[in-house]
């Protein structure tokens, strides 16, 4: 099976330029996903193929040495794109060693076509595997279909380059020009063309997967504080309630309110109010467990979901939060803003008729009692089968305040 090698190379050049243009447009203004590195690498590779196509029409030093060196630079750029996507430092001095080595090898073996092809193929294969290993070593930072597609394309490219190098050493390649058509040459550039498309599409899908994940996270996240928004925290509470009912476990809920928050905004300004919200969230997050979840329920109200937690455990945590927030005023413009909390707590073993909205209502009623009792305190919504005990928060009578 043979095909016209110059035609295959021309296809690679045109595809590389078109793909690079699309990536530059797609990644314009976004320097975090590595798309600009990938696009520039494709353009460098296209320039290398143009030099190969001009074999015999320009000096061999340009076609052989610079053509292969540009191909090595292309793979260094692909490595830079992956590292940029992962947020790793570039380490250009290390990544540019292979292109320099390639230039020296091509100059040294200028008169020996077989050794030249073998050295270039093996070196490019090593660079391809370097990109593959970088992607694999930090696969947590680039999950999804795109990473698998990119890894597959790189693996195919490396296998093709290793096979081409071995074929050159075994003298299976005919002729003394890269433009000469034979089975090995045809397979080499067909695979190169396919790998170009697969790896580039894989990298684009990686960027898309990251954007989709970011959008999903932002859709469930409060933009100011970084914790779950109202929809997400209610969904988390609903899941926790279902789990507690299945396993007959304890569960607790805290409704947290920042005392006199409107006064903070009126006196210090809304930016100061924003800082107070972030300050309180940080203190809460430092004291809850990994399985607990905090979310912004309203303007200055936060909901804390505490799976597998007794009422007394939640009460102790709530009192601790009140104490630490009072003892840790919020820093603002060289001074401090005093902050206190009122917290309503519900906890117990749930009954089959209990639902997430009833738990919120119980904790919210206890919070109302805390405010009515003077603020900066914890109040409990106690219940026997959740909301029936006289004197509970839901009954309309505030429980005995904590001393």
TrEMBL record:
The chain crosses the membrane at residues 6-28, 35-55, 61-80, 115-135, 147-167, 187-207. Its EC number is 2.7.7.65. It comes from the Bacteria. GO terms for cellular component: plasma membrane. SMART domains: GGDEF. CDD domains: GGDEF. GO terms for molecular function: diguanylate cyclase activity. Keywords: Membrane, Transmembrane, Transmembrane helix. Residues 249-383 form the GGDEF domain. One of its GO terms (biological process) is negative regulation of bacterial-type flagellum-dependent cell motility. It catalyses: 2 GTP = 3',3'-c-di-GMP + 2 diphosphate. PANTHER family: DIGUANYLATE CYCLASE DGCM-RELATED, REGULATORY COMPONENTS OF SENSORY TRANSDUCTION SYSTEM. This is diguanylate cyclase. It comes from Simplicispira metamorpha.
